[in-house]
Fold Bifunctional protein FolD.
Amino acid sequence: MSATIIDGKAFAADIRSRVAEQVAALKTDHGITPGLAVVLVGSDAASEVYVRSKGRMTVEVGMESFEHRLPEETSEADLLALIAQLNADPAVHGILVQLPLPGHMNSDAVINAIDPTKDVDGFHISNVGLLGTGQKAMVPCTPLGCLMMLREHLGDMSGKEAIVIGRSNIVGKPMAHLLLGESCTVSIAHSRTKDIADVVRRADIVVAAVGRPKMIKGDWIKPGATVIDVGINRVEAEGGKTRLVGDVDFDAAREVAGAITPVPGGVGPMTIACLLANTLTAACRANGLPEPEGLTV
Ligand code: NDP
């Protein structure tokens, strides 16, 4: 039996249109336009692409986009001064500093200088602590997108066995906290885990965030499990071209799983949609308004 393919592209488009509707209502009813500031230091090619598409989609949903491009040699003090200015600007509800930062900067110090209520990436230590203690936080966009897809597909996840493969601060750890919040029994695997296949075989929910092409094999997957593939890996394809694949061996896993996300077209599009949702949430919270329904945890 072939798995249901969870269409992240369509789901992300639906989230963006729900965000757009609520942005329009905020403007009409309260005269508020949510604003997202994106700061890019240097000229990393992949970051340029992300920043451009973030800016375009921000405008498409009716929000204000503020882009700040700083040269590679910008000092950390100058970047911190810009962040202080954005923290104080009432037109800016969300601030995102595109990572990675140049090597001479301390990324933790920079991220922790952002006002946590404007930290739409959810990386500030306060938001990490709030999420870890089950309180209202800004939730990192990629895990939030994964959770939304899981909720949509599975509904109640209480009591299910879940495994998160990868323990990064950006994906693995927050994902594990979110699944705990859904009352799953959560395991976290990483490079030192012994016999990952064995742990994966017990799981009803598998979230793979490793960065190793097709590492998770089809015969590791429990029949009927839901598989969320966060990995984005560029591999060589025929004719000297390249293509993107996930961390899961999709063709084999889809024969066993109950549902699975493809790469591309799964988690990827959800990340920017959730960034927009977080910016809307931040604008509502900043103005003491109810949070947008179905767009937060
Ligand atoms: P990191 O490199 O920060 O973390 C990778 C994790 O995988 C680490 O915890 C590492 O373990 C673990 N790992 C590495 N090798 C193995 C192995 N052989 N067996 C088990 N675990 C292993 O990556 P990120 O979390 O930032 O990203 C993971 C993937 O997700 C990447 O492909 C990235 O491109 C993608 N990604 C996709 C996004 C999207 O929008 N769809 C957004 C963010 C990331 P250890 O800690 O022991 O080293």
In short: The pocket of NDP is lined by residues 142, 165-168, 170-172, 189-193, 196, 209-212, 230-233, 267-268, 271 (CB under 6 Å). The mean pLDDT is 97. Residues 54 and 272 are 7 Å apart (CA to CA). The first helix runs from residue 8 to 30.
